[in-house]
Every structure is written in structure tokens, then in C-alpha cells.
Write a structure and sequence with these properties.
The protein is mostly helical. It has 25 helices and no strands.
């Protein structure tokens, strides 16, 4: 207790000293202006000149007039609304009622903005535009998204420099910088975002945001609450960017005591509020930020060095906490038919599947006979498929396109590589076909145009993709001559637990089991094959192995009905999968000599139609040239490459994380 009191007093003294130092510098300007020398000219540069090197603007011949970068006054209310719905609803880093009041009082005269508030407004412009789709920008602004992005980014960078953001202690500048970095991952390198996030964290620490504002008696309730929101926004960025670079967190465990945001609405707080508002029961404007903050705490524990050596039981407990957090903070109050409910459940499941892979990360890409049993490898494959399918569901659902910018900042390299390796090691089963379709999601692997060119990292992945492509082709040829093996693989498929994620349905309505059957049945027999009921079996993605992991999926429903949302199919939590096998007549017919397979010839396996949202072949755009399995050297063995190291390196190869597909 004494230490906490001492720390609080020390931080308060630091804050007072910073204010005093700023006043002394300002009052001494006149005294030092007389008798200028070359040694003092550097100190006399304007903030804009001093800080321009951060964004390389010192190379420009002259500083621009920021008025040229502001949107029209008539456009600002629309931009604020988009920002509030698309971006701020996730973190609530900015108090929108205060910003709206400020803009209303300006009456369109943006020259009256202080440098600090001008930087905040440009961060809002940039974040809002970046979160929108290309067609929305064209309709509402009459220009391309690229043009508007660059305009507001330049405006923001110049505004930050003008506000002297590296030397000015102001919470608003931390908010503006956090806004910028949250969206920047879509258009800049992961390394740049990681570096800048470290700078933002330093800005926050200099303000004492790592200490809860309740420790400082001079802070009003509004300042305490907004400090909490800004800090946890940076904690989330720290986890995201550290994962991207494969580094330890900048914000270390035990280095802060800032509490999560309070469970209140924005209307409950403001600069004029004198008393701390009572927290509400149920959903509020802060429900998402609170859920995110608590999830960040759990993920930080799982990704720390100490947790990596902990037992499977402990890791399972942490995984279960993610669901408990989602349930306790949000889902118990939410309406199951709402898109927000579905998004929350889907993200929680995706994170849990991803962290399950992370538990086995050191052994994930080992040889089949090393360390991991076949049971564990099979269940990890299910996790990887779930990651790909949940990612596709989030991106392809029109009802939640306003949050698509969040999903598109992630490339799930561990799941991608693990799927490719595992399907190459096993006979081509219906589950392999399901994984194959999931790999072709337009939102899973970034197109080559969005990958740094001239990098050796792309070549191993190209070879692995080609190896999987050839393996599938060879397996189809082999199984067409062995009907007994086909029947055996389907019998095994009926008995196994399947991914809990909504299956990606290609060609309009064709499931992976139907696609797999069509590989081995004459076209004339297709009508006699009973279609699969596409209700997936509940499976515990964290039960690896079953005896050690707890069941955590069963406590959650699967969201709204298929009639409300088109990007996925509903999974009935009360049903178990009843796969329909080939009828006796069909199996008997399979044993007869095959027809010409005109509908599905082997030489067309590499160029088959999948349906909306599914690319015909990985990295198939014209530039770079289309890759063909036969044109790539196949001498590479799966174990010839350190895939664990490759995945860590791959996190930094993506320069442009923009959408790889659109509706």
C-alpha cells in the first residue's frame, strides 16, 4: 500500500514538473531570442519542422496549409457517424459526444481548432475512410479510396508534427495516434506499425496512463475514464503488433494497474461530470471495450514466455476464460438474433481455435512421428480449418462489413501452413476437401500483389501450395481406381468430429462432402447420391487431447438464423451430425467401370469453379503469372523447411493488408 501511495505521489510530481517545465520554456523564449547563435538555431525550429522527420516530410520543399486537407464542413457529420459505428464502437477510445459538441461549436470554421484537436480530427477522418469499402467511398465522396486515404493521412501526419506530439503531454494526442495505428496495418508494413506502437506506448507512459487515474486525486471522472480507454486500446495494439513481429510485448506483465473501462454509456460521462457515475448492469457503450480488455489479459498470459511452459490443463483453463469473458460481459445480455451477438461468438471461437494452435506451436510443424500423436494432429487440423472458416464467415457477411477492416488486418499463417502440410500427409478424405475449399477463401491468403515482391519467403509457400495441389490430383486418380478405399474414407468421415465452424459452401449450395463424392462418381450417378445435411457436429476445438482439455463450445449458441445473415449457415447446437453415406445402389455402381468424367476430368481439377468469395486457385491473378503444379520443382520435402521459423518470418512480409476480395 505504501509503495502504491509513493508511486502515485511520484507520478503526480512528474506531471506537475512537466507542466512547470513547459511554462519555463515558454517564458524564456523572449530572454533567449537576443544574440542567436548557430548552436541555438536547432532548438528554435517550429514543432512542425522538428517532427517532420518522423514521417519523412522534411524532404518536402514547404509545409502545406492544413486547411487544404480538411473535408467539406457538410461531410464532417457523415464522417463522424461512420467513425463512431465502424471504429469507435470497438474501443471507444474517443468520447464522441464531446467531439460532436466541439465540431458544432466551430460552425464549420476548422481554423479555430487547436493543434491537438486538429490532429484528433484528422485521425478520425483517416480512420473512418480506411474502415469503409471502395464502393462506399466512390458513392459518398466521388473519388477513390486511395486518394482520400492519402489526403487524410498526410493531413494527420502534418497535424501531429504541428502539435509537437513527441514533446506535448496531452491525452488527446495519444487518442489521435492510437486511432491512426489501429487502421494503419491495412496500408503500411507490420514493422512500421510495430515501431510506431512502441512510440505511442511511450507517449502514454509519459502521461502516467499505466497507472489507474483513480490514483491521482486531481483528475476528474471523465479524465480517469478516458485514460483507461486509451491505455487498453494501446494494450490491444501491443498484442497485435508483437504477434505480427514475433517479439515480446512492449507492455510487460505487472508494469501497469490501469483498470478496464467502466460499464457505462457515453451519456453518463463528460468533461463537466463531477461525480464518478455508477456502473450499469447489462450492455452499454463500453461492453465491447471491456470484453476486449479482458480478452487481451488472457491472451497476454497465454503468449507470455512463462505460460508457454505451463501445463495443457492450465492452457485449457485460460482458453475457457475467453469464453467465460464473452459470456459474462456480453452474451448473457445480448439478443441472439443480433449481428453483434453473432460477431462476438464467432470471434471468440476463432480466437480460441487460434490459441489452441498456439499451445502446440513449438511442435506444430514437426514430423508425423515426432512429439504429437495422430489424434492431436487431427484435432489441430480441425482447429486450423475452423480458423479459416470463421475468418471467411466474418469477412463474407454483408451485415458486419463495417468491421471488415478489423478481420483484414490478420493473416492466419499458422493455420494456412498447417492445413497445407497435413492434407499432403494423409489420404484425400472429405475433411481434406473441406480444408481445400477453406484454403481458397478470398479472405485467407493475401494476393501476391499485396505481398512484398522479391522476397524468398514466398517461394516455400508457393512450393507447398503446389505440392498440396499435386497431392490432391494424384489422390483422386488413385481413389478412382479403388472404390473400397473411397467407401472406407467415407465411413471414417461419418464417425469423426467435424469443425464447429460454418462450412464454406461452394458453387452455391455444394458442401465439401458432396464435392468429394463428385470426384469419384460418374456424372449420371450424381442424382442418386443423397445430399449431406449441412448441420455440423459440435466439436470442442480446445479438447486436445480430450482427456486433458475441458469442453468449452457447449456453453454457447451459434447465433442468428440463416434467414437473417447470408454469409454462413446456422449450426444447431442441439444436433449431432448424421452424415448420409452413399446408398447401396450408388456404391455398387461405383464398382462398375467409370465413364468419361466429362463433368470433372482430372485435368480440370486445378481450374475448377468454387463459387462467390472463393478464388479458383491460390495466387491465381495474372500478375505475377499463374502458378501451375507441374511447373514447380517438387523435390522439396515437407521437412526440408523450418516452417516454424518461416511462419514467424512470414508475419512481416505483408505490406498491404487490404481486402483480398470483395462482395
Amino acid at each position: 500500500m505504501k509503495n502504491n501511495l509513493f508511486d502515485a505521489q511520484l507520478n503526480e510530481l512528474k506531471m506537475d514538473a512537466q507542466d512547470l517545465n513547459a511554462e519555463e520554456i515558454e517564458s524564456s523564449d523572449d530572454e533567449t531570442s537576443f544574440g542567436k547563435t548557430p548552436s541555438t538555431q536547432e532548438l528554435e525550429r517550429s514543432p512542425l519542422e522538428r517532427n517532420s522527420f518522423i514521417f519523412r516530410h522534411n524532404l518536402l520543399p514547404a509545409s502545406p496549409d492544413l486547411r487544404e486537407f480538411h473535408p467539406l464542413p457538410s461531410q464532417i457529420p457523415f464522417i463522424l457517424e461512420v467513425y463512431s459505428e465502424n471504429v469507435n464502437s470497438v474501443a471507444q477510445c474517443v468520447h464522441m459526444p464531446t467531439v460532436t459538441r466541439m465540431i458544432r461549436e466551430l460552425r464549420g470554421d476548422m481554423t479555430r481548432l487547436t493543434p491537438v484537436n486538429e490532429a484528433l480530427m484528422f485521425s478520425i477522418y483517416y480512420a473512418a475512410v480506411t474502415s469503409m469499402e471502395d464502393d462506399e467511398i466512390t458513392i459518398n465522396f466521388g473519388c477513390t479510396k486511395q486518394e482520400l486515404n492519402m489526403k487524410y493521412r498526410l493531413g494527420l501526419e502534418h497535424a501531429l508534427a504541428k502539435a509537437d506530439f513527441l514533446n506535448t503531454s496531452d491525452l488527446v494526442l495519444v487518442q489521435a495516434f492510437a486511432n491512426f495505428l489501429a487502421l494503419l496495418r491495412l496500408y503500411d508494413s507490420p514493422r512500421f506499425v510495430w515501431m510506431m506502437t512502441g512510440l505511442a506506448i511511450r507517449m502514454a507512459i509519459s502521461l502516467g496512463l499505466h497507472r489507474d487515474g483513480s490514483n491521482f486525486p486531481n483528475l476528474c471522472p471523465y479524465a480517469i475514464e478516458m485514460r483507461r480507454r486509451a491505455w487498453w486500446s494501446l494494450c490491444m495494439l501491443d498484442v497485435r503488433t508483437s504477434e505480427d513481429q514475433g517479439t515480446e510485448f512492449t507492455i510487460t506483465e505487472g508494469s501497469f494497474d490501469t483498470k478496464p473501462p467502466s460499464n457505462i454509456n457515453n451519456a453518463d460521462i463528460g468533461p463537466d461530470i463531477k461525480e464518478v457515475p455508477a456502473e450499469r448492469e447489462g450492455l452499454t457503450d463500453s461492453s465491447f471495450p471491456r470484453m476486449n480488455a479482458q480478452t487481451v489479459v488472457i491472451v497476454r498470459k497465454m503468449m507470455s514466455n512463462s505460460a508457454r511452459s505451463s501445463s495443457i490443463a492450465e492452457q485449457s483453463r485460460l482458453l475457457h476464460e475467453i469464453y467465460q469473458t464473452t459470456e459474462n460481459v456480453y452474451l448473457q445480455y445480448a439478443t441472439e438474433s443480433s449481428i453483434e451477438y453473432w460477431v462476438s461468438v464467432t470471434i471468440a471461437r476463432l480466437v480460441t481455435a487460434k490459441m489452441t494452435l498456439f499451445v502446440y506451436l513449438p511442435n506444430l510443424f514437426s514430423s508425423p512421428g515426432e512429439q504429437l500423436t495422430s489424434e492431436i494432429r487431427a484435432k489441430l487440423l480441425i482447429c486450423a480449418i475452423e480458423i479459416a472458416e470463421y475468418n471467411h464467415a466474418l469477412n463474407s457477411e454483408p451485415a458486419c462489413r463495417r468491421w471488415r477492416w478489423i478481420y483484414q488486418t490478420y493473416t492466419h499463417w499458422h493455420a494456412i501452413v498447417y492445413i497445407l502440410i497435413e492434407i499432403c500427409r494423409n489420404p484425400w478424405s472429405p475433411l481434406s476437401e473441406r480444408a481445400w475449399v477453406a484454403l481458397h477463401s478470398a479472405w485467407l491468403i493475401p494476393p501476391q500483389a499485396q505481398i512484398k515482391r522479391n522476397t524468398q519467403l514466398c517461394f516455400p509457400l508457393r512450393k507447398l501450395m503446389s505440392k498440396a495441389q499435386r497431392h490432391r490430383r494424384n489422390e483422386v486418380i488413385r481413389l478412382r481406381g479403388n472404390t473400397q478405399a473411397v467407401a472406407s474414407l467415407e465411413d471414417e468421415h461419418i464417425k469423426i468430429a467435424l469443425p464447429a465452424s460454418p462450412e464454406i459452401i461452394s458453387n452455391g449450395s455444394e458442401s465439401s462432402l458432396e464435392r468429394w463424392r463428385r470426384l469419384f462418381i460418374e456424372p449420371s450417378l450424381n442424382e442418386t447420391v443423397t445430399s449431406e445435411n449441412n448441420i455440423s457436429m459440435q466439436t470442442d476445438i480446445a479438447s486436445i487431447p480430450t482427456s486433458e482439455f475441458q469442453s468449452i463450445h457447449s456453453s454457447f449458441g451459434h447465433g442468428p438464423s440463416e434467414a437473417n445473415f447470408t454469409g454462413y449457415r446456422q449450426v444447431d447446437p442441439g444436433s449431432s451430425t448424421q452424415h448420409e453415406s452413399l446408398s447401396g445402389q450408388s456404391r455398387q455402381n461405383i464398382q462398375q467401370p467409370y465413364g468419361p468424367f466429362d463433368e470433372y476430368p482430372v485435368n480440370r481439377l486445378d481450374d475448377e469453379p468454387f463459387g462467390p468469395g472463393i478464388i479458383p486457385w491460390l495466387w491465381s491473378e495474372e500478375s505475377p503469372p499463374r502458378m501451375n503444379a507441374d511447373s514447380v520443382d517438387m523435390d522439396m520435402e515437407l521437412d526440408d523447411i523450418d516452417w516454424y521459423g518461416w511462419v514467424d518470418s512470414a508475419k512481416g512480409i505483408q505490406w498491404d493488408g487490404g481486402p483480398s476480395g470483395s462482395l
